[in-house]
Amino acid sequence: MTRNRQKTVTDMTKKSGTPSGNLRAYADKQTQRNMLFQRVLRLLTFSVLFLAGFIIYQTWQTQQNDVYADGQITGYLKTEVRDTRSGQQLVGWPVVKFVTADNKIVTFTSPDHLLCQTQCENGPIGVYYQKDNPGKAQIADFGARYGEIIVWSVIAFILLVTYILHSRRLRILARRRYGSPS
């Protein structure tokens, strides 16, 4: 009789919908895993945000000192045919020659390849260079100039959104489990 009475008292103090025994232990382990995942996600998100911000700032600072010049493709260091979804494409790494503002002639090989039509042609092209180091010039191409900034920004944004959504999910699960705060 006393045993049934204790069980009734325990059942009355226990919230309705609260799992018992193994289910409660499983829920606690799941909560611990969620919290650990949240901490790792937070660390990763803010590390990538910091790194992306630093890279974006460095690239922006470097580009503030860039000077535009009209260049001329004088040839190609190498060309190759690449297989893509749309078929084969010819790409080449151009050798570019340009004249700086102080009349120095600079020739450089672009680390960025250019898509060519049936043949890689020589011709005029825009170039960005730094006044103090014109040998590190780059072709005035949107992808080459802003590609790194865009990639890091997208990665940081995706991680930040994932972190925010996961935080909201944990709050909703906590409210369901422990009841809404008064």
Describe this structure in words.
- This protein is α+β, with helices and mostly antiparallel strands and 182 residues long.
- It has helices at residues 2-13, 22-64, 142-178; strands spanning 66-84, 87-99, 105-109, 114-116, 124-130, 133-139.
- Strands 1, 2, 3, 4, 5 and 6 form a six-stranded antiparallel β-sheet that branches.
- A hairpin with a 5-residue loop joins β2 and β3 (105-109).
- α2 (22-64) packs antiparallel against α3.
- The longest helix is centred in the first third of the chain and has 43 residues, at 22-64.
- The protein is elongated.
Distance between the termini: 37 Å
Overall average residue pLDDT? 78
The major pleated sheet works out as:
6 strands, antiparallel
The total count of strands amounts to 6
SSE arrangement, N to C: HHEEEEEEH
Shape descriptor: elongated
Share of helical residues: 40-55%
Q: What portion of the residues fall into strands of 2 or more residues?
A: 25-35%
**Total helical elements:** 3
User: Regions with pLDDT < 50 over 5+ consecutive residues?
Assistant: 8-13
Radius of gyration: 30 Å
| Secondary structural class | alpha+beta
